[in-house]
UniProtKB/TrEMBL annotation:
This is Ribose-phosphate pyrophosphokinase 3, chloroplastic-like isoform X4. It comes from Durio zibethinus. GO terms for biological process: 5-phosphoribose 1-diphosphate biosynthetic process; purine nucleotide biosynthetic process. Residues 94-207 form the Ribose-phosphate pyrophosphokinase N-terminal domain. It catalyses: D-ribose 5-phosphate + ATP = 5-phospho-alpha-D-ribose 1-diphosphate + AMP + H(+). The lineage of its organism: Eukaryota, Viridiplantae, Streptophyta, Embryophyta, Tracheophyta. Keywords: Nucleotide biosynthesis. One of its GO terms (molecular function) is magnesium ion binding. The gene is LOC111288183.
Amino acid sequence: MAATSPPLPSSFQNAKKILSNFTSFKPFSILLNDNKYSHFRCQIKSLENKPSNWSVEFLSGTEPLRLIQNSPSSMSMAAASASDSAVKTSKKVCLFYCAETKVLAERIAAESDAIEPRSINWRTFEDGFPNLFIPNAHGIRGQNVAFLASFSSPAVIFEQLSVIYALPKLFISSFTLVLPFFPTGTFERMEDEGDVATAFTLARILSNIPTSRGGPTSLVTFDIHALQERFYFGDNILPCFESGIPLFKNRLQQLPDSDNITIAFPDDGAWKRFHKQLQHFPTVYNI
């Protein structure tokens, strides 16, 4: 204890002498606030021929220290309560997926016990329009929900958007849309009058996803064509741009001839977008 601390009360000194008779007693400290003794509890780790379920209570400088034996039942209840609290605070994610991403979703769920794959009935009417159903919709209330999408063709975008718009309105805690590939990203600007920037159109559609209890939807996509496309999205969605280039680099470095690799870019735009992440390799591109 620091030299500036006030002297210990005589009751503490007497109790320390009593407790020192226990062969396995370990020293313990006092929490001081503004140089005043405060209420504290400290656990005696072990006593000779006694279970380690004793604690010492110090209330004030005028009252003696008290040696208290905790009942096993109270200790068990405290341990069970702590265990239940840990389970409740752990984040569980209900992962929905489309038909094209089913295998990938199952592989992702196999990597973590916190991810639970959830299926959707992807059906169609006789005229070809979607007839969709989310099983056990009440069971995802208050849960963190994610959807693994695949906008591989215009034909599947409408049915997936229908589900994406429906999930946040099921009283869920948060919603994350994982769109591995942003399909319209290559047409993100107008070069001639009359060009339609479809990347902006898709961004506007996704920006209208309803908010969940936790706030705006998080959109995760990989290697979008141009980083400035983040400004195409509205305030109702939070775009998160990730990249697979680090995994690509690790794979290249594992090759036996990794010192003899050249990266070829299809055009100047691709070189500007990714060359800084691949600067350890020689690069060429078609002007």
